[in-house]
């Protein structure tokens, strides 16, 4: 950092603890505001300007210090860098340790409150950019790849009956076939592998599937006005679901947490099973 009477008078201890840009090193800083998503598409702003003056706290001095991105000093007067993250570059700013200008810009940016990675930053100030750690990004990318592989393998090895129940529990029609269920689950596994693996280990999916089958086959019904489940055959109430809670999730909670719920689910399973067998049994023609 170039020092003047007003700027960059940080203590040596502070500067020694700060990250420096080494010779032959390149770093990537990414703007947090250069892009936005709409309807699944990412668009980039033309550019985002970063202020070239900031105030930081130096604990070694027990005082606040003004820092600045100073390009040069003429007759004691500082000339400042203009710092922009260009949307045309994906909101990235690439700085090289072989450039004196880049090293000066980096020193300012790294120690500023605008740097999300600055552990000493004033958290009341909105961060404007972050450091792109290549090793961390590689680890995140590989872990995501590994999770996707596990999720896709889980779909491949899944029994058709389990795939059907899983797909129904995620809102698919109860007449879905094994192949269509696996196609649906494959897309789900690819888009959210971590969430998919968590859901695939849950027993809730079988319960949800049976609830959906019971509703579709006229065994139970959910009255939206009363927010309550009923037996269709007798009209008897089963349980009321708290308003604001998804009615299927509420029914699952009732089944898993209440003694009466376990009894209700046993009856639902039996009736769904009988209904399924009856549907698959061919009817004999009357003579």
Which regions contain 5 or more consecutive residues with pLDDT less than 50?
281-287
Mean pLDDT: 87
- How large, in whole angstroms, is the Cα Rg? 31 Å
Helix content: 40-55%
Overview of this protein structure:
This protein has 287 residues and is an alpha+beta fold. The chain folds into three domains: 121 residues, no CATH class; 52 residues, no CATH class; 79 residues. Helices cover 41% and strands 22% of the residues. It has nine helices and 14 strands. The chain has a three-stranded antiparallel beta sheet, covered by helices on one side. Strands 12-13-14 form a three-stranded antiparallel beta sheet. Helix 5 crosses helix 6. The longest helix has 24 residues. The termini are far apart. 24% of the residues are buried.
Please describe the structure with a list of short key phrases separated by commas or semicolons.
single chain, 287 residues, alpha+beta, 3 domains, three-stranded antiparallel beta sheet, 9 helices, 41% helix, elongated, disordered C terminus
């Amino acid at each position: 950092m170039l020092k003047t009477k007003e700027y960059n008078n940080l203590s040596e201890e502070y500067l020694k603890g700060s990250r420096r840009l080494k010779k032959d090193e390149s770093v990537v800083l990414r703007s947090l505001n250069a892009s936005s998503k709409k309807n699944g598409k990412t668009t980039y702003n033309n550019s985002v300007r970063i202020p070239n003056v900031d105030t930081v706290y130096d604990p070694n001095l027990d005082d606040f210090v003004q820092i600045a991105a100073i390009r040069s000093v003429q007759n004691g007067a500082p000339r400042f860098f203009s710092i922009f993250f260009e949307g045309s570059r994906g909101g990235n700013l690439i700085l090289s340790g072989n450039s004196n200008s880049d090293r000066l810009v980096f020193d300012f940016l790294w120690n500023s409150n605008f740097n999300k990675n600055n552990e000493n930053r004033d958290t009341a100030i909105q961060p404007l950019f972050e450091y792109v750690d290549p090793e961390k990004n590689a680890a995140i990318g590989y872990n995501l790849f590994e999770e996707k592989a596990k999720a896709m393998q889980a779909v491949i090895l899944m029994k058709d009956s389990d795939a059907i129940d899983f797909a129904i529990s995620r809102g698919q029609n109860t007449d879905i076939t094994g192949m269509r269920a696996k196609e649906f689950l494959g897309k789900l596994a690819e888009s959210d592998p971590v969430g998919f693996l968590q859901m695939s280990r849950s027993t809730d999916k079988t319960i949800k599937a049976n609830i959906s089958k019971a509703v579709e086959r006229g065994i139970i019904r959910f009255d939206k006005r009363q927010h309550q489940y009923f037996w269709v055959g007798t009209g008897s109430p089963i349980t009321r679901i708290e308003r604001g809670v998804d009615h299927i999730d509420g029914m699952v909670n009732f089944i898993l947490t209440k003694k009466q719920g376990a009894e209700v689910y046993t009856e639902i399973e039996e009736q769904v099973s009988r209904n399924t067998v009856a549907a698959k049994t061919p009817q004999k023609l009357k003579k």
